[in-house]
Amino acid sequence: MSQQLLDILKSTFGDAVLETHSQHGDDTAVVAASRWAEIARFLRNDPRCDMDLFVDLCAVDYPRREPRFEVVLHIYSIGKKHRLRLKTRVGDQDGDGAELDTITSIWEGANWLERETYDMMGIVFRGHPDLRRILLYSEFVGHPLRKDYPADRTQPLVPYREGYEKVAPFGPNEGMSFGRQTHRTGKFE
Fold it and tell me: Hey, what CATH topology would domain 2-140 get?
């Protein structure tokens, strides 16, 4: 069934589908970055596709290739029982221009994974409702999953933040519900 998805994409979006391939039951379409969100919305909403389950989003760094990054989306149709890997390519060899439209309005589950991809790889998702670091502290310099990130780089030390609930980057419904272990007492607050 996934091969039919590739055929639907090619007939609907023409040159915006840069390449397709199937390997071991995994069907992949590489699409133009400028049409990323439009194609994702089509896959979600068109009844022939019905890709209603967002599975994963990540990026891969190819530093010797331009565009340098591949953003990879895995989606699935619960009703039709088919899956698809959708890819696009962004960024020059220095990592500049690595921008893509957000798909959070299509699948809410993309929110945190787009933030993680931004944090770890530096890919900007235009229109994201809250694009900020999610795994690293805000003062962290660089993006550690890029292949040219120096493994021995020293990051700036950040002082412990007393009264963290006032300065923490989390909203009232984020973070650890059980409190946080302090470095001074070793107890949870």
Answer: Beta Polymerase; domain 2 (3.30.460)
